[in-house]
# Entry
Amino acid sequence: MATLIVSDLHLGRGGPCIDQDLADLLDFYCSDADCLVLAGDTFELGNRDPCATLSATLQRHPTAFNALRQWCRAGNDLHLIPGNHDPQLAESDLQAMLCDLIDAAPTFSHHYRDEHLHVEHGNRYCPLVCKPPSIVNQVHNQQLKKRMACLILLSLTLLATAPPAGAIALVGTATQLYRTVTTQLYRTAAQDIAAGDDIRTIVLGHSHCPDYYRPAPPVDYFNSGSWTRNLDPLTPSALTYIHVNGHGRLLHWKDGPHLIAEPRRTSCVC
# Structure
């Protein structure tokens, strides 16, 4: 049987626009996959009262919660990984509340392991979260450094000569810089994860940049992207996910599954 991996739903941030897509996805794979891994930032819980926030999220996303309920009632497994937007999922009281809300007994941990599969949220590798001493020094590829420096210089020049255009360019540069650095950091992290164990497929989330990369055969790394906003213009839809059955595949959902990348067919998405 297969494993589905979805990250960064951010339920509670916006309206119920993704609810039906999630319900359709789980209904489609209900008899094909036996485990759903929600790989972090499933909910927007905030810092004040996470239990009240989760209850309010149920009111805003009833279809999504019912989809999870039906998935579990069909005999499938559900595993949740806490992210940086829902770290309270590591706490027993919130776990118990979620179990009551979906009438099921999902499992929780900071990473998911199943034979040769490793899944975690990945925020600990993000330069905006872990705050490494120097973002650029984390990137060992010299061409990448030069590209980043040129983008910054161009935006600063435009900002000085034509403020409106410069401001727009600076935002674009920041997005490009984040995507470039984060993708490189995550690929490096995947290599480190693969070095210690007999792992064939590594899945991270958090970055909102869907990606496929083969650091060293037979190891494959995927980033599951996001169900709210991707930073990759090449991705035709923000509703991206990973399907693992022997090997992984990166797909997007739009009235059905559509392949973006898989081993031996393409080398890079992001």
Q: What stands out?
A: The longest strand covers residues 247-253.
